[in-house]
Design goal:
Layout: H1 25-39, H2 47-53, H3 95-117, H4 124-130, H5 132-136, H6 140-150, H7 156-162, H8 177-194, H9 201-208, H10 221-229, H11 236-247, E1 255-258, E2 261-273, E3 276-287, E4 293-302, E5 308-314, H12 318-333, H13 337-347, E6 352-353, H14 360-388, H15 390-398, H16 405-424, H17 433-445, H18 451-467, H19 476-491, H20 498-510, H21 512-515, H22 523-535, H23 540-544
Antiparallel strand pairs: 1-2, 2-3, 3-4, 4-5, 5-6
Helix pairs in contact: 3-8, 3-9, 7-8, 8-10, 12-13, 14-16, 16-17, 16-18, 18-19, 18-20
């Protein structure tokens, strides 16, 4: 109260409070901000504007060792502070050995960084601080400016900082995804240090073993590292394997971009025989982050289905590549795949890969393609069984005889696929009456559809239709939103209508004059629009209020 000069009242809350932790938190915040502005109770600002208008005139020191996270200060980052989100009886004692392991790794990384960077950088730590420009704007111009100012650096120090990301220390369990991500940053820093001759992994894992999980299946930090972290480490050899295997199913351009890597094709040969395929190639793979690149040869055998075998050799001699390419092709086309498999094992021993080594998205896409034909046959079988059993089903129901589980499963699958196909198109074409027939059949059979899939399809269709109300609130899309809500009710599926409500609210405000009854519009259509508002749980008087003239 005794302070003079500009002051700011600020409320600091976690952004996740507005929707993630508290449903409709964003709407409550919007309402509060609107009231503040309308009543003139305060002027809304932010820290940037306030500091621009009123630059700091004194310095405040943070009281050590406090933190925002809990009353125990920074203990959350190094010990069992006792604050927890759930899981009574669990311990956070794993934090101390994890912190000690990360601190030791950080110190080793710092030592290695200073030794190596001092050879090429005028000020290694100034370069480390300036590296944020590359992280935020990775472009040729920014890279050139950085190298011109500092020389060559790398992201290893950045990974060392990410090891201490706060969410990794917030929760109760060592094997949680947040803490595993912290350890993944450590693994990446270790991998980058290996390029400079430092071997830090064994010591780090040994120290992690002292961090005990609350879950028996995970045991300790060493097992967490081996099972949850090590498989995620990406090498250029694995990038080449991903490229080689996925190229069997989806050809790449001469230069392909694969996430943060590029692969440039130098040579390629592909042979096919009796449904099997052989692909051999020579590429240059490069990291777009570190600039590291490597020449590599690969050979892939696809022997049908999911039987894919791939070998990768980095920096192969030219004569070796030509010899292996000719030998594999001759074996594959001549004596057969078995000899080609033997040669693959012989020439690429120690660097063999298979479908599980693909990055997740491509792995799912390829396996989805492999199973599509079989699934189509299964779907046809279910559909045929259900259709052929129709008269029998009707007779059994009339006779009060329980239907066999196999027929019920066939009905559930066949009708569910039909329904998904219809609703999946409902954003573009009018919702078919067949969807309501299916709903009645499902109800009669006492069979439920896949609620999650159906909710998603209904929601996407309703959102697309509701968005169009901003253009024409009384057009055919209004009827389609009603029909989609009718279908959801018939199926007993609860749809998340948040975006539909937002779109409806926007349309009601854009066209409020046209939508007030008695304004000369189509009274029946206007009534249908407001009926939709009732179904979406709106206060219609509040929506109409802006158009009401005082009188």
């Amino acid at each position: 109260e005794d302070r003079k000069g500009p002051q700011i009242v600020h409320i600091a809350t976690d952004g996740e409070s507005y929707g993630h932790h508290h449903r409709f938190g964003d709407m409550a915040l919007a309402h509060a901000l609107r009231l503040i502005e309308e009543r003139g109770a305060a002027r809304l600002t932010n820290y940037g504007e306030f500091l621009a208008l009123h630059p700091p005139d004194h310095e405040v020191e943070i009281l050590e060792p406090t933190s925002w996270s809990c009353p125990h200060g920074v203990e959350r980052w190094r010990g069992h502070c006792g604050c927890h989100a759930a899981h009574e009886g669990w311990t956070q004692e794993w934090r101390r050995p994890l912190r000690e392991a990360l601190d030791r790794l950080r110190d080793e990384l710092v030592r290695g960084y200073e030794e190596q960077a001092a050879r090429v950088l005028r000020d290694p730590w100034a370069a480390r601080e300036a590296y944020i420009d590359i992280i935020l704007h990775r472009s040729p111009e920014v890279l050139d400016a950085f190298f011109a100012a500092h020389g060559r650096s790398g992201p290893r120090a950045g990974q060392a900082q990410l090891m201490f990301t706060s969410c990794g220390w917030f929760f109760d369990e060592l094997s949680g995804i947040e803490t595993v991500q912290v350890i993944k940053h450590a693994a990446r820093a270790i991998q980058l240090a290996q390029g400079f001759g430092y071997r830090l992994e064994d010591d780090f894992i040994g120290r992690l073993a002292a961090a005990k999980s609350n879950l028996r299946r995970w045991g300790d930090g060493a097992r967490v590292y081996d099972r949850a972290v090590r498989p995620s480490v990406v090498t250029l050899s694995r990038v080449v394997a991903h490229y080689a295997i996925s190229a069997l199913f989806e050809p790449y351009a001469e230069t392909a971009r694969i996430f943060s890597y590029t692969v440039r094709r130098l040579d390629a040969r592909r042979e096919e025989r009796s449904g099997n395929a052989l692909s051999i190639g020579l590429v240059v793979a490069a990291s777009r982050i570190t600039g590291e690149e490597q020449r590599a040869a690969f050979a892939v055998l696809h022997l049908g289905g999911h039987d894919v075998q791939c070998g990768v050799r980095t920096d192969p001699p030219a004569d070796w590549y030509e010899r292996v390419k000719a030998g594999l092709a001759e074996a594959f086309l001549g004596t057969g795949p078995s000899d080609a498999v033997r040669m693959l094992d012989e020439h690429f021993k120690g660097s063999l890969h298979a479908l599980p080594d693909l990055f997740l998205e491509a792995r799912r896409a390829i396996l989805g393609r492999m199973t599509a034909e079989r699934l189509a046959r299964v779907e046809a079988m279910y559909q045929t069984l259900y259709e052929e059993s129709g008269p029998l089903v009707a007779f059994m129901r009339a006779s009060d005889v329980p239907l066999p589980p196999a027929i019920l499963r066939a009905a559930e699958y066949a009708l569910g696929k039909q329904l998904a196909g219809i609703v999946g198109q409902a954003a573009r074409v009018p919702l078919s009456d067949r969807a309501f027939e299916i709903a009645r059949e499902l109800e009669a059979l006492e069979v439920k559809v896949d609620a999650a899939e159906t909710e998603l399809l209904l929601r996407l269709a309703a959102e697309a239709r509701a968005d169009s109300l901003a253009i024409d609130p009384l057009g055919p899309d209004l009827d389609q939103v009603h029909r989609l809500l009718d279908l959801a009710a018939a199926l007993g599926v609860t749809v998340n209508l948040w975006q539909v409500q937002n779109a409806y609210h926007a349309a009601s405000q854009i066209h409020v004059d046209r939508l007030v009854e008695g304004s000369g519009g189509d009274a029946g259509r206007v009534a249908e629009f407001w009926r939709l508002g009732e179904r979406l749980n709106f206060n219609l008087n509040a929506l109409r209020a802006p158009a009401v003239t005082p009188g």
